Amino acid sequence: MTLRQIASLAVLAVLAGVFLAVIPGHRGWFDVGVYYGTVQHWTHGGNIYDYQRPGTGYGFTYPPFAALCMLPMALVGWHTAIAIATTLNVLATGALLYWLVDPIARRQGWNRGFAFGLAAVAFAVLNPVRDTFSFGQINLLLMAMVFADCRRLSRGGRFAGVGIGLAAAVKLTPAVFIGYLVITRRYRAALVAVGSALGATLLGQAVAPGASHFFWHQALWDTSRVGNLGYISNQSLQGMLARLAPNSPSKAVWAAAVLLVLTVWAHRARRADRCGDQWTGFALTGLASCLVSPITWVHHLVWALPALLALADGGLKATQPARRRLLLGGSAAVYVVLTSGLVWLWKGPPSGLGGFLGANSYLLLTVALLVAVPVPAAVARRRPVAGTAAGRPRTVVLERPLPLVSRELARDLVSRGSRSPR
Prior knowledge:
Elements: H1 3-22, H2 30-43, H3 64-69, H4 78-108, H5 112-124, H6 127-135, H7 139-154, H8 162-170, H9 176-183, H10 187-207, H11 209-217, H12 237-244, H13 251-274, H14 278-292, H15 305-317, H16 321-340, H17 352-359, H18 361-372, E1 381-387, E2 393-398, H19 407-418
Antiparallel strand pairs: 1-2
């Protein structure tokens, strides 16, 4: 990096730090407090789901396997637990930014260190990210596990699916990614994911059988344990319907909306996969998981951020100036809204069109990303076959890209074929 770039990053980092320090909405490590209190209560003979954080009605809402993963917190003090949670989130963020931003920087010819630094500063001030850190939430860790599987898939890794399965065993929302593996015909990885999730769940059952029975038969179906469906922070389809009809949100309308979202997601995710673009397929799946989950708090929307980056990347790739401006401008607008904390202006019952748009702005942006993230058109590929009369390899045009082979592996196969003995 040049001295000017280093100075620019330093200034931006200071500004971001000031913004994070003075902006309202600090969460006081609330979720870490729930995790920490639950583990302490459990190790002293209590039941996992009996604990409630003092002064609140909130307790542990994840499967018993998640509590088992958090058990080491019983060995440390409160401030150490906060430090560990923050450190793990920083590491997960670093991995995600490297995987998502570095390929763009290399393709664009940018200084990779400078691009990573800019992305880190921009990432830090986003509302879902700052809430994740301030609550001490685990979504960034689960995202890192899921997107590590995306890398394994693109490289043909044998253990692809383990990260998705374990993430789904900790928190149910990532199970949508198992659906992605199925609709893209990655059946081996899907079986690995299901096996990992089932094995982890059975481990939780063996360690805490009573708590497991309570979770799967009662707590899982009791949304009141998580919070009010109509609360402004719930930016899911069900949250929107609960705000529109607080007394009787229609389950039929919600089911129809979920079906529509899953149909759009499946179509676009399969299309991305056929083009060898697994990152976009995973990004679209993150959006779908936020929309169809009954409760998607603002901090859960970190799952939508890879799609925001994919939208911006589509603008950088666009060859038509008008499309380039549209995609880059759209991604900038989404970023500004997600940074602003706009939804919190409508904590009270929203009224009128303006209230509806404002109170559901994050949800509406998630829907917009689902349909607007560019998915590359299928491109004909050439595969070397037996030589022709001229002694040169003949090629056959493949009308559809191979669905189970990444673009990098396909290029490698073509290269090896062209060097094969004649």
